[in-house]
């Protein structure tokens, strides 16, 4: 047996120095480059926040105008890529479609020389600009509709909505979607970002970095939880069922989706903002039954799981918000990816500045020095 100490899940093990985002998990504080994420969600735009994450400071007016132009002019997909998306099984999961199409995107824009910053910046623009188009294209094509071409006169959030639904969002809807993208853009060393850094550390091309990260985000313990939450709320059904449902879930050691976090031991600050967005949306329309179940679940869980430091995370309220915008459940995690690509790319660029390949150790628990028995001598 090895003497090395094993830290399952690398809990509390620092794996890189990073200046991109800061989390205080006891005080519900999340900052991107020093600015509170809640402030950015209210005051900024996804494009401005992406620049902040990638470059380190807020852009000047000229920088932002150029960045917007650079992103807008890279939204369109090659027709062969649309053909590839058409060839994917329409009942496949959109996260799998996204992972495949991001990987294929890299074949149209080869960028294997990751030692060149200009190439890397070009790939950063291409990936950030293209992810919404890839997600929207699959979501339409699987329903037998044509993909909608992106529009350069719309900002990132409005164009994404337009490509999904074929109509422009209202100003209020655009703002909600933009705020959701900002809130999901970055979260230091989470599993998908670590995946991006590990993949980047081999000097793999940026499209491989992002497609690896998409795969990691898709799991239900990470980004995929936002989709699971809606299924869970459906399974609970009514407010009256919440207490018994939760007691049974705890007794059977089931995971409550959208609850718990490696870093936050209080309510995730992003969940608080997402809940505010939901409340604002429901102020006029009235609260949907599913939202009533969600807030009852949070109330009951505060008593039963709160003492263990288990509170709602970012995935708990995002689905309720997206559903109110008319977004299908299986697009919740792809939308997360559309936002998180900003963080993945910021970490990839940061990793490359001071790269060393990730190659951790293991605690070996297998056999050694085993004799080979020829097949004819085995039973
Ligand atoms: C964008 C994001 O990725 S946010 C996270 C999204 N994921 C989810 O919502 C899925 C549900 N949550 C979880 O599975 C976990 O809380 C994670 C994966 C987020 C964090 O996992 P870890 O930091 O490894 O926490 P871990 O699983 O060790 O939990 C510690 C204890 O709390 C319990 N616990 C943690 N989360 C939950 C939960 N959601 N429901 C019930 N119990 C929970 C564990 O069972 C464990 O209990 P034990 O000490 O009695 O064994
Ligand atoms: O930080 C984590 O482990 C998961 C998370 O909340 C995120 O990626 O947004």
Automatic annotation (TrEMBL):
The active site is at residues 261, 315. Pathway: Carbohydrate metabolism; tricarboxylic acid cycle; isocitrate from oxaloacetate: step 1/2. Gene3D superfamilies: Citrate Synthase, domain 1, Cytochrome P450-Terp, domain 2. Keywords: Transferase, Tricarboxylic acid cycle. PANTHER family: CITRATE SYNTHASE, CITRATE SYNTHASE, PEROXISOMAL. It comes from Tuwongella immobilis. GO terms for biological process: carbohydrate metabolic process; tricarboxylic acid cycle. NCBIfam families: cit_synth_II, PRK14036.1. This is Citrate synthase. It catalyses: oxaloacetate + acetyl-CoA + H2O = citrate + CoA + H(+). The keyword Oxidoreductase does not apply. GO terms for molecular function: citrate synthase activity. GO terms for cellular component: cytosol. It comes from the Bacteria. Belongs to the citrate synthase family.
